[in-house]
Design goal:
The chain contains two helices and 33 strands. The chain is mostly beta strands and 538 residues long. The strands form seven sheets. Strands 13, 14, 15, 16, 17, 18, 19 and 20 form an eight-stranded antiparallel β-sheet that branches. It has a five-stranded antiparallel β-sheet with strand order 1-8-7-6-5, with no helix packed on it.
């Protein structure tokens, strides 16, 4: 009985051990990472009776498949907004232009005094309505009519009676003077330019010549601007080079000890280019052209300066007016003038407006009152046609001019822009080679070529452009016609063309008011002749 109990006890212990081992193995299966050490096998203590030893079979340890750790997904770290600090803006510094020295101040030279012998007959006939012209041959040279003579390096200024019976020698000058001779309206003074020497003035009454300005040319800084006399012959007005620009100056007769105490006056006084001076018929105003509103200064490196080393000469400007009584200067028109203005009455000015910087652009003819108001267009605004060589009637009511475009046409219009007539298309003058002159009473027109281009003979029309005399054959051709102050004569430069082509020699001709009965006044002088115009006779 005891033996039986012992065996039952031993079997129970074995059963507990097996259960324990299975429990441990289950724990291992539940995720223990370490493999447990083998469990010691219990040794049964034999009883006195030998009993077989029970050796338990080792339980296989299962391979544990590791569970992969979950992948760690990091939270997104917000990137802070970076405020950009702008780099300093590089401001290029303007390289100043090289220093340009200013022109010297304008001063009257009043030197090179010369006493001249003036023919008393010249003085006696200054107001008789004679013609002034220059001849480039020596005074003793004679030639057959139409025969060219070698040109001399000297030229002579002459006065001639319109009937040709008397020709008076006035003054001998260098041939380089050309037509740069400016006779005062009263005939008492002559201003003239000598190449390489300067501008001079001669008093015929005193027989004294002196140098006004030691200047290299009459084109200050390249601007072609003709000098002019005031109607009362007391002021000689011209454009001159100043420090960095061009101003208009007026010279009084005090240089000869006569006048009103006004020796030299700067009329325009601006930092721009001022040029094209034109006196009103009553002498109370001076119209001129200026670029001052566009270019307040031409001084290098000055604020607002238009100067650059390669800047072109202004091709025009706006219309300004100087009042003699007050010295006030005011702008009359904003249009861009491309030619000198022209007075058509004591209170009205005509001008040609174009496009700044484009000499080939179309132009328009305007008129404007000096008493106020906007400019009035006389011709249609053109895109390709240019208005050239305008000539206004004495009363300012009609104008004749040449257009250059697809064709060169001669047109007459009223002052309000109405087209009145056109010249026959067969009478086509070369571009820039047309001139017209109205008779003093405004009833007739003389039409001709210009600058030696004289394609037709004498052409005279009435005020409606209907022909009175029409000599299309140029024998001689007529250029630059001028009416005498009394309206009795037409003077012009003529080119003989007996063989159908001109021989290049110009002579001075005078015809009656109808353009007929022309006389050659200079045929026996030889050399080349240029007409200056009528003197006196009013």
């Amino acid at each position: 009985m005891k033996m039986l109990l012992f065996r039952l006890f031993a079997a129970r212990r074995l059963l507990y051990g097996a259960v324990l081992m299975l429990s441990l193995s289950g724990c291992n299966l539940l995720g223990l990472n370490n493999t447990p050490e083998p469990t010691a096998t219990p040794t049964l203590t034999p009883s006195a009776t030998a009993t077989a030893t029970l050796t338990p079979t080792a339980t296989a340890t299962p391979t544990v498949t590791p569970t992969p750790s979950p992948t760690f997904t990091p939270s997104l770290t917000l990137t802070p907004t970076v405020t950009l600090t702008p780099s300093p803006t590089f401001t290029p510094s303007l390289t100043p232009f090289p220093t340009v020295p200013p022109a010297p101040p304008v001063r009257i030279a009043a030197d090179s005094f010369t006493r001249l012998e003036i023919d008393p007959q010249v003085i006696a006939n200054l107001r008789q309505g004679w013609l002034a012209f220059i001849n480039s041959a020596a005074p003793t040279t004679t030639a057959l009519p139409g025969t060219p003579v070698a040109v001399s390096d000297r030229q002579t200024l002459y006065l001639a009676a319109p009937d040709g019976r008397q020709i008076l020698r006035v003054l001998e000058l260098p041939a380089s003077t050309g037509t740069r001779i400016y006779w005062s309206p009263d005939g008492n003074y002559i201003a003239y330019f000598v190449e390489g020497n300067g501008l001079f003035m001669l008093s015929l009454q005193l027989g004294i010549s002196l140098r006004l300005f030691a200047i290299p040319s009459l084109s200050p800084r390249g601007v072609l601007s003709e000098p002019t006399w005031s109607p009362d012959s007391t002021q000689f007005t011209l454009a001159l080079t100043t420090a960095y620009d061009v101003d208009i100056f007026s010279v009084g007769l005090d240089v000869f000890g006569v006048g009103t105490g006004n020796l030299l006056t700067n009329i325009s006084q601006s930092g721009g280019y001022d040029f094209f001076p034109q006196w009103s018929p009553d002498g109370q105003y001076l119209a001129f052209v200026s670029d001052r509103a566009i270019c307040p200064t031409w001084e290098p490196n000055a604020p607002g300066s238009c100067y650059t080393p390669d800047a072109p000469v202004p091709d025009g400007g706006q219309l300004y007016l100087w009042e003699r009584a007050t010295g006030e200067v005011r702008r009359l028109a904003e249009e861009w003038l491309v030619a000198p203005p022209q007075w058509i009455s004591a209170t009205e000015i005509a001008f040609i407006g174009g496009k700044r910087g484009d000499p080939l652009a179309g132009t328009t003819l305007y008129r404007i009152s000096i008493n106020g108001g906007a400019p009035q267009a006389v011709t249609p605004s053109q895109t390709d046609e240019r208005v050239l060589r305008m000539a206004w009637s004495p009363d300012g009511k009609r104008v004749i001019y040449q257009t250059s475009g697809a064709e060169n046409t001669i047109i007459m219009r009223s002052a309000d822009g109405q087209e009145l007539a056109r010249l026959d298309a067969r009478l086509s003058f070369p571009r820039f080679a047309f001139s017209a002159a109205w008779s003093p009473d405004g009833q007739r027109l003389a039409l001709g070529g210009s600058n030696g281009q004289c394609p037709f003979g004498v052409l005279v029309t009435n005020a409606q452009l209907q022909f009175i005399t029409r000599a299309e054959r140029p024998n001689p051709g007529m250029c630059d016609p001028r009416w005498s102050a009394d309206g009795r004569f037409i003077a012009y430069e003529g080119v003989l063309a007996s063989t159908g082509t001109g021989d290049g020699r110009l002579d001075v001709y005078v015809a009656n008011s109808g353009g007929v009965g022309a006389r050659n006044l200079t045929s026996r002088l030889g050399g080349q002749v240029r007409l200056l115009g009528w003197l006196g006779g009013e």
